[in-house]
Design a protein that fits this description.
Blueprint (H helix, E strand, L loop, with lengths): L6 H9 L6 H13 L4 H14 L3 H13 L14 E5 L7 H11 L4 E5 L9 H5 L11 H10 L2 E5 L6 H11 L7 H15 L3 E8 L8 H17 L3 E8 L7 E3 L1 H11 L5 H17 L7 H6 L2 H12 L13 E6 L4 E6 L1 H11 L15 E4 L6 E2 L4 E7 L5 H8 L3 E4 L8 E5 L1
Parallel strand pairs: 1-4, 2-3, 4-5
Antiparallel strand pairs: 5-13, 6-9, 7-11, 8-10, 8-12, 9-11
The protein binds uracil.
The site of uracil has 8 residues, from α9.
């Protein structure tokens, strides 16, 4: 059958910096999802977009076409408003684990449709799967029932949401075309808009452990995401937050669950608490609950109650001991001083090499693998004191992780002053 457009012609046009028309975009996404456009042609188009960008109207249409490639969920039958949070991915980012039950404890339903990790930044589902018995796969009916009864759900996004993105993201991952603002923005927002949440808060990470290396690039991505969400009728806000240093004191799977539970119990590292509360306030405000202080629900145990019910509803045992690694190794400080820097990328790489992350989609992760650290940047350490702990079930992974951490930190006399939250947008 004759096709209405020529893929080669559209690639050439995009390569030469000309915008694509609505009908051309619709056809490209539809034909690619059906398998009628070759992977190498889509790869060339993604590279052309990487270099020449997209006009706002083009990006709106591209995102709409990706949404139209699959199904849309409908939360309008729930008795409370919905708010979702999406992080562009960072090292030690366990915020969702605390945030979902916390916001639910404040009266808002939180559907967290999440993914598994690929590369250095961990996936929320990999972390939750460290909890004995917990299952990620829920039917739509199970998800809606849990949202109504418990208020929060963290589960795998079904394959029916934005299937065009599923294909395109996998292709971008192997063709060096992930780090393009229009492609990232349309990828994230097509899934989030198709998911049907009424409010969305984005945590756009910047620094060595993130896609975006600078606050300026992060701001550009955040503005693009907020514009797309708002245009689609979703109340969307974004925070641009620091990812030059990892969050909290742990990166991995079970180690991050343990830290999230500490925060739910009213303790935990101050940066995790601060960012969780900032995001919770945005989610509550975007759903008309400005007067509710999420700090109260953390302090009085309501968030912990929702966590336990949420884990239990998905077959997990919130009281069961978390898996512990069969092998650990400690790196100690060589000198007295202040920890001036701990590099997010190096810590993420070490955790990944220890087995916390995967190199290919089909790889399994080790639940107990990861890195933990005893002091955060700005805190004092003494020579000989433990600084970093490496956890793995396979000891042959230890040297590679040690190498990754060799230049990951600096001990000196200066207190670092980088803010945790760089910007608010929306
Ligand atoms: N996360 C996504 O879902 N898509 C991207 O392109 C990048 C991060």
């Amino acid at each position: 059958m004759a096709t209405p457009f020529s893929a080669v012609e559209l690639i050439r046009r995009k390569r030469d910096g000309h915008p694509l028309a609505d009908a051309e975009i619709d056809w490209l996404i539809e034909a690619y999802t059906r398998g009628d456009i070759a992977e190498e042609q889509m790869a060339a188009l993604a590279m052309a977009i990487y270099f020449t960008g997209m006009a706002p109207t083009e990006l709106d249409r591209w995102t709409a076409a990706m949404i139209a490639s699959g199904e849309r969920l409908d939360f309008s039958g729930l008795s409370r408003p919905t708010a979702d949070k999406h992080s562009t991915g960072g090292v030690g980012d366990k915020i969702t684990l605390v945030l979902a039950p916390l916001v639910a404890a404040c009266g808002v339903a939180v559907p967290q449709l999440s993914g598994r990790g690929l590369g250095l930044t961990g996936g929320t589902l990999d972390k939750m799967e460290a909890i004995p018995g917990w299952r990620a796969q829920l039917s739509t009916t199970e998800m809606l029932t849990q949202l109504e009864d418990v208020g929060a759900v963290i589960c795998a996004a079904g394959s029916g949401l934005a299937p065009a993105d599923r294909k395109l993201y996998a292709l971008r991952d192997v063709t060096g075309t992930v780090e393009s603002i229009p492609l990232i923005a349309s990828s994230i927002m097509s899934k989030k808009i198709a998911e049907g949440t009424s409010a969305l808060v984005l945590d756009v990470k910047v620094g060595s452990g993130a896609f975006m290396q600078t606050a300026e690039r992060g701001r550009e991505l955040a503005e693009t995401l907020v514009r797309l969400g708002t245009a689609a009728g979703v109340r969307t806000r974004a925070l641009v937050t620091e990812m030059g240093t990892p969050l909290g004191r742990s990166a991995g799977n079970a180690v991050e669950v343990a830290e999230a539970v500490e925060v739910l119990a009213g303790g935990g590292p101050s940066d995790v608490v601060e960012l969780t509360l900032a995001l919770a306030r945005e989610m509550l405000s975007a759903t008309g609950r400005d007067g509710v202080d999420p700090a109260d629900a953390l302090a009085d145990g309501r968030a912990m109650d929702v966590w336990r019910r949420m884990v239990h509803a998905q077959g997990g045992d919130p009281a069961a001991p978390l898996p512990r690694a069969r092998h650990t190794e400690t790196i100690t400080a060589e000198t007295d001083g202040i920890l001036e820097h701990l590099d997010a990328h190096a810590v993420g790489l070490a955790a990944w090499r220890l087995g916390a992350g995967r190199a290919r989609k089909e790889d399994a992760v080790q639940a107990a693998a990861g890195v933990t650290w005893t002091v955060r940047p700005g805190e004092q350490i003494r020579a000989g004191q433990p600084l970093l702990h490496l956890h793995t079930d396979t000891p042959d992974r230890l040297p590679g992780a040690r190498d990754a951490l060799a230049r990951a930190y600096r001990i000196g006399t200066c207190t670092p002053v980088t803010p945790l939250i760089h910007d608010w947008i929306g």
